[in-house]
Amino acid sequence: MARKTSRSAPEADGRGGRAGALTARRIVALVLVALALVFIFENTDETEIRLLIPVVTMPLWVALLGMGVIGALIGALLLARRRR
Predict the structure, then answer these.
(1) Confidence class of residue 73 from pLDDT cuts 50, 70 and 90?
(2) Are 49 and 61 in contact (CB under 8 A)?
(3) What is the enclosing helix (H) or strand (E) of 50?
(4) How confident is the model at residue 21, as a pLDDT?
(5) How far apart are CA 66 and CA 20, in angstroms?
């Protein structure tokens, strides 16, 4: 008589149940994001930024956050390209 074994959901998907676990990479990413946000929101003074020709006055945190978003998008695009 054959014995039937049932697998639990985490083992059945091949990830060993660590799909939601905090890995070292995720912890480092969360710490870096937290540090970047603290740095951005501590720098709230108005600043002048030259965008090729026009000079724009805006809070420094807006410029820093914008550059962070642009950097994250570029990183995501490069990572997606590497995974192909």
Answers:
(1) very high
(2) no
(3) strand 46-50
(4) 83
(5) 29
Taking 60 as the threshold, does the pLDDT of residue 16 lie above it?
A: no
**Rounded distance, CA 3 to CA 59, Å?**
68
- pTM, entire model: 0.57
Cα 38 from Cα 45, distance rounded (Å): 14
Report how far residue 35's alpha carbon sits from residue 67's, in angstroms, rounded to the nearest whole number: 15
**Residue 47: closest CA among 58, 32, 63, 34:** 58
Question: What is the average per-residue pLDDT within 22-33?
Answer: 89
Helices assigned H by DSSP within the chain: 9-12, 24-42, 60-83
Residue the block writes with tokens 């501590």? 42
d(CA 16, CA 36): 32
